[in-house]
Design brief:
Chain lengths: ~675, ~140
């Protein structure tokens, strides 16, 4: 199947350089696997260079739904068991997660996003056994990345997207998609599809995820879960139920309740079966949450059921009130389920100017003193008792400065520094190492590992603070550089958006809102080149509104305009996605048809004729129909160039006019009345 | 062991002398003052730090003792390293020096009798530090 063209709007997002993406080992894996015939060994080696990534992949390969199989302990065994492509996709998904960052979109709840994505992933993994041809790992990756398009918009267009989110708060996803398209000319479903293709995920996989994003609900009457997109829809319902908050709209609760009932029916599950399934998903969610440092909460089937029942009851009341002109009901889930995070609209405080410091020491006395010293200086201080804990906190909270002891069990200060420097987020942190009266060799190694400064233990508070103030100057500069970078990227994104709109306006007919003649000719030229190069067929259909002058003369230009607009809409409604109609001039339209020969295009043109003939145009003082005459010319007729083909289509229209209008004529067709088929032009 | 207490800035400073170290200072009054200053209005801060040290110290000294008994240099080294830093924070300067010396000995290839002797001295000094700190707590 031919892949869809990547839209220019996505290329613009990508060129911002801020799209969520794999990093470190993830980038290496992308490079290794850029072609279909990549070396699984090379990929395995790349994965093994990152111990936490290796651990996550092995854990998934050994998970409960593969019980009974021999436990595996190496990446190469995981590749043998799951297949190289699946392992690759898992590695990329985990890499994207490990690089996650709390962006600046005020209306987007980043922790809740990741919490929901993880819940969807484990739910999809658990449900995959019911879907033929979808492995549990595939379900996991799809669930994890299913809404990455939303994250992309929140990251690249943080301010305008916050506006979109607030304006569509509580609305169905179709409204959000429409608002995204209206604002950015692209929606999160398309972005998600393009990102997945960009990361080398299969087209069918990306398409299934896009289909889920375009339609979040499984249709009533579904008899089985038979595709990845169906699987995602049900997994999404389960994960949404696990994250009901006090502000989840009753409409959404009702929707989720219906989806879960449908799932129960499709799987032929009793309440006890569903209870077990949700218990299994909740357990896995919690385990993976701990491993990936993503918030989760305790949920059970009974708590979900209770909250759903209350939400649905409220939804009924809301509908009744709205029907009766009453007021809107407030959300009701209240305290029945512990929520993991504040609801989206609560937002979070941003732009705090306090410097955030993470203090790390395994010695409780030194740690307490360090924290007290730093807090006394007005720093915003968090602390960790060992290197591993520090790594998790650093990735989650993104401190500006880290003050870490060198000698600690499990993960030393140096190991912590190296791990931080490998990540995008940790690469800009200012790291001060606390050392004993150590040899110079250690300090050389420390600086080589990425340490910015060191202070000897036991530290002198005044000395430590003086060194930190020097560090703060660096942090301040980094903040300004980062702020400037974000501003430049935001302005660039806005400029690109503006330029694209400007270009689109210059190529659009303002009255009918379909492409104009210039756009049409660019497209015809491009199709001609493509056809000449690859032999792909294409055709043009010239369409002329019959007796349009009479409409204008008898009813005025306002009615004439309305006729043109309505006719353009009627023509558009009959075309396939890849075909295009443009206003060619006056009352003339041009249809560009891809992949069809003359006879097929004639059929399409006839359909257009019938639709226009049946289309009732309503305007002030006018209610009527118009007809059109159509001339078809196709590439397979052997024209020497674009102008000859266009001229032939034009002549065919005049033939149609001469033969009585409201009909289709093919170019170079012999006329039943040769005398009348000359180029004599009738009044349109 | 003799102990003199002087009050300055309304606080308490302890100068305690150790027979284990030829009558050297067990607790440095300046270090205690620094802790009190750091605590500011939090009158419990000094107590919290001292109690943290005493709990941690007891565990580390037991480790040190066990390491010396079993001639497990690694255990002794770890305990000495940890105590070296935390004891300095509570003003046990001489004990901290002793721990530093012990740590250096542990890192030598040929440790000889010095290691055991210094280790025993450190264990005995800790006992004095513990007593002095408890006295300080009682006074404050």
């Amino acid at each position: 199947m031919q892949k869809r063209a990547i839209p220019v709007e996505f290329e613009e997002l990508k060129s911002s350089g801020t799209l969520p993406s794999p990093a470190g080992v993830g980038i290496k894996i992308l490079e290794i696997t850029r072609t279909d015939e990549f070396s699984a060994d090379d990929m395995g080696q790349a994965i093994m260079s990152d111990s936490s990534l290796t651990g996550r992949i092995l854990e998934l390969a050994n998970s409960a739904d593969r019980a009974g199989q021999e436990p595996i302990t190496t990446v190469s065994a995981a590749i043998m068991r799951l297949g190289a492509t699946t392992v690759r996709n898992l590695a990329l998904a985990f890499s994207v997660i490990s690089e996650r960052d709390d962006g600046s979109c005020k209306a987007f709840n980043y922790p809740l996003y990741w919490s929901g994505s993880l819940a969807r992933a484990v739910a999809a993994k658990a449900l995959a056994q019911h879907v033929p041809g979808v492995s549990s790992e595939e379900g996991y990756v799809a669930g994890l990345l299913a809404e990455v398009g939303v994250l992309a918009l929140a990251t690249v267009h943080s301010e305008p997207y916050a506006k979109v989110l607030l304006e569509t708060r509580g609305q169905p996803m179709s409204v959000v998609l429409a608002a995204e398209n209206a604002t950015f000319d692209i929606d999160h479903a398309t972005i998600c599809y393009c990102m997945m293709l960009d990361w080398g995920l299969p087209d069918a996989f990306a398409g299934a995820v896009e289909s889920f994003n375009l339609e979040r609900l499984s249709k009533e009457g579904a008899a089985e879960v038979n595709s990845l997109s169906d699987l995602l829809r049900f997994a999404d319902a389960l994960s949404s139920a696990m994250l009901f908050t006090a502000t989840t709209p009753p409409r959404r609760i009702n929707e989720v309740g219906e989806q879960i009932e449908l799932l129960q029916k499709v799987l032929d599950y009793s309440d006890a079966d569903l209870d077990r399934l949700i218990g299994q998903i909740a357990g896995e969610w919690s385990r993976w949450g701990e491993r990936l440092d993503i918030s989760t909460c305790d949920v059970s089937f009974s708590s979900i059921k209770e909250a759903t029942a209350r939400g649905r009851e409220a939804f009924k009341k809301e509908v009744a009130l709205q029907t009766g002109g009453g007021i809107r009901c407030e959300s009701v889930v209240a305290d029945t389920i512990v929520t993991t995070a504040e609801a989206v609209e609560d937002g979070r405080a941003l732009g705090t100017e306090r410097i955030k410091i993470l203090a790390v020491d395994d010695d409780p006395v030194a740690l307490r003193l360090l924290v007290a010293t730093l807090r006394k200086q007005g720093f915003d201080v968090t602390f960790a008792k060992n290197g591993s804990e520090a790594m998790r906190i650093a990735m989650r909270e993104g401190p500006d400065i880290i003050v870490a002891d060198h000698e600690m069990p499990e993960m030393s200060g140096l190991e912590l520094t190296r791990a931080l420097r490998r990540s995008k987020r940790g690469s800009s942190m200012y790291i001060v190492l606390l050392t004993g009266a150590e040899a110079e060799d250690l300090l050389v190694t420390a600086f080589q590992s990425g340490v910015d400064d060191f202070v000897q233990k036991p530290f002198d508070a005044r000395f430590l603070v003086a060194r930190l103030r020097a560090g703060m100057r660096i942090v301040g500069l980094q903040r300004r550089v980062e702020e400037d970078r974000r501003t430049i990227l935001r302005q660039l994104a806005e400029k690109n958006n503006f330029n694209r709109r400007l270009k689109m306006l210059s190529l659009t007919d303002l009255l009918t809102e379909v492409p104009n003649r210039r756009h049409a000719m660019e497209r015809v030229e491009s199709e001609w080149k493509s056809a000449a190069r690859s032999g792909t067929q294409f055709a043009v259909v010239m369409v002329d509104v019959d007796h349009f002058k009479a409409v204008n003369d008898n009813y005025g230009h306002d009615v004439g305009d309305r006729v043109l607009k309505s006719t353009a809409q009627a023509i558009s409604s009959t075309l396939r996605g890849e075909d295009q109609v443009a206003r060619f001039g006056g009352e003339e339209f041009l249809i560009i048809v891809r992949g069809a020969v003359l006879e097929e295009v004639r059929i399409l043109a006839e359909r257009v004729r019938l639709v226009v003939e049946g289309n009732i145009v309503e305007a002030e003082g006018y209610r009527g129909r118009v007809t059109v005459s159509l001339g078809v010319a196709s590439f397979d007729q052997g024209f020497t160039g674009v102008s000859e083909m266009m001229k032939a289509a034009d002549e065919a229209v005049y033939q149609a006019k001469n033969l009585g209008r409201n009909q289709v004529r093919g170019a170079r067709e012999s006329s039943p009345c040769a005398d009348e088929s000359t180029t004599r032009r009738l009044s349109a | 062991m003799t102990m003199s207490i002087s009050g300055d800035s309304g606080g308490l400073s302890a100068h305690i002398h150790s027979p284990e170290n030829g009558g050297g200072v067990i607790l440095d009054a300046n270090a205690i003052d620094v802790l009190k200053e750091l605590g500011g209005d939090d009158v419990e801060f000094l107590t919290e730090i001292v109690e943290l040290f005493l709990a941690e110290g007891l565990m580390r000294v037991s480790e040190m003792h066990a390491g010396l008994e079993g001639l497990e240099t690694g255990r002794v080294l770890q305990a000495a390293h940890a105590l070296k830093s935390s004891s300095a924070h509570v003003g046990a300067v001489e004990f901290s020096r002793c721990c530093a010396e012990l740590e250096s000995l542990c890192r030598l290839e040929d440790q000889g009798e010095d290691l055991v002797l210094t280790g025993r001295r450190a264990v005995a000094m800790y006992s004095e530090v513990q007593t002095a700190l408890k006295a300080l707590l009682a006074l404050s």
